[in-house]
Amino acid sequence: MTNKDLANIIFPDIDKSIEYYENLYPKRNLNEKCAVTRFAPSPTGFMHIGNFQSAVIDYVLARNTNGVFYLRNEDTDSKREIEGAMNVIFDTLKNYDMVPDEYEFNGKVVGNYGPYIQSERKEIYHTFIKYLIEIGRAYPCFCTKEELDEMRKVQESSKRRIGYYGRYAVCRRLNIDEAIEKIKSGIPYVIRFKSEGDFDNKIHFEDEVRGRISIPENDQDIVIMKSSNKLPTYHFAHFVDDYLMRTTHVVRGEEWLPSVPIHLELFKTFNAVPPKYIHTPLILKKDGDTIRKISKRKDPEASMSYYKEKGYPKEALIESLMTIINSNYEQWHTANPEKSYLDFEFSAKKMSSTGGALYDIEKLNNISKNYISKLKAIDVYNGVLEWSKEYDLEFYNILSNNKDYSISIFNIEREQKKPRKDYAAFSEVKSLVWYMYDELFDKEEKNYEFSNITDKDEILRIMKTYIEKYYDEADEQQTWFEKIKDLSKELGYAREVKEYKANPDNYKGHVGDISMVIRVALTTKAMTPNLYDIMKLFGRDRILKRIEELEKNF
Ligand code: GLU
């Protein structure tokens, strides 16, 4: 029996050739400079921020070069697969305006290089594996888990390299007849690649981030087809898919860097040109005094769902990632505040190559506060509305029923040279403006934050004198403030802070104390946006109601 017989016994139905697929998926008709990138997540139901970072790079690279960005569903590990996981992935890309140029989703296929779902590509993988068996570069391996565990123990105790290579590659030496017999008798097997590498030789390759890298050649006979579902392993699928989909740049986590020798050997075996590799740094976080890898189990911010639930604007999140992706991004962005991140020219050389990139939520908060502060009130309104529609229906209804009023609230201290920066995420808005809505104010347990003046009679005297003698709905801001000064004087407080400071014994306090009483009496809060604007939005009747409410709480 020959290798060909073995190949036919394993894959009796495979009748296509590698050339057939090479012709079906020809080299893309694109200019040399165009990058073809792919986002290739496994459908685990969890979108890690590190994966998303890779997708951002893929997307930027494709847009920078007028290339192609496609999505590939890497679902070969059926055990890890979660129902609906592809929705999470696709929706995240959509939410961030990163819809791929080619993809397969909900039965719809866009693009000529599909199927884009690995489990639908079995026939293609089998064609490539069949060829390897025919030429003697792949073989079935019948080693059981127990045998492999035993082998590992022996290697560990004799301090040898772990793995299936050289003299440990037992099934490599099975003769074809023996192998066929085992297959016919139903013994389960995997298919392994027969490596020709020599661990004592080094290969050299160019990592786009780290430059020239030299590592030992691969000599492991890695598994290329699993026994359970006959699907390929990551390594083999990476080669077949990125070769046939004509990927030019593979952007993936740096945990794959040590596997490059395997991948290069596979590309070489098929005479195919390997893609360029961009290995992204791990995302790190500060935890007390230490810096550690962001953890899927411990850190909610490891998941992209966190940013959605918090309601960070997509632009802010992308900006925060771009600042850790390329060291010169922040400077570029400051110089080009109006430009989109897609106008920035990504450079792999400007990525961190020292094992990690520090991601800081405080930094994201600052970026986001800055971003939201520059939005128009209507855009803030729409942002909060969209967030609350999913996460806070009560607030959603209030916002929908009070559109103009809400926009006026968000307009306070906005659209000016130094706009107010108080919202880092749309989920924070309600907790900062609730007192502006009677529906929320009425039902809330009130905690009045009075500070310098706390005497109840004095507070009520201030409020009543103010409303009866000084408050006029129609006043401009300047007159309004003059009147608060007049009120201060009448009640024994200094009209100016400096007057008070010069002669503190002459006064009960100063105009600032009086303003604070009015602010807290109307909102319960010691810190609010401009009080004049707030009062303008309230109007006399609601102000009177707030004073009544205050009396009730005393
Ligand atoms: N499915 C692999 C992962 O999620 C993809 C790595 C790659 O992009 O090649 O880790």
Write the layout of secondary structure elements.
Elements: H1 3-10, H2 18-24, E1 36-39, H3 49-64, E2 68-71, H4 85-95, E3 103-105, E4 108-110, H5 122-134, E5 138-141, H6 145-157, H7 176-184, E6 190-193, E7 202-207, E8 211-216, E9 223-225, H8 234-244, E10 249-253, H9 260-269, E11 276-280, E12 283-287, E13 290-293, H10 304-310, H11 314-325, H12 329-335, E14 357-358, H13 361-373, H14 377-391, H15 393-401, H16 403-410, H17 429-433, H18 438-443, H19 456-470, H20 477-490, H21 497-502, H22 511-523, H23 531-553
Residues 40-42, 74, 238, 250, 252 line the site of glutamic acid.
Largest sheet: 3 strands, antiparallel
Low-confidence stretches: none
Strand content: 5-15%
Helical segment tally? 23
Helix content: 40-55%
In this entry the ligands are: glutamic acid
Q: For the terminal residues, how far apart are their CA atoms?
A: 98 Å
Q: What is the SS-derived class?
A: mainly alpha
Specify the overall morphology. elongated
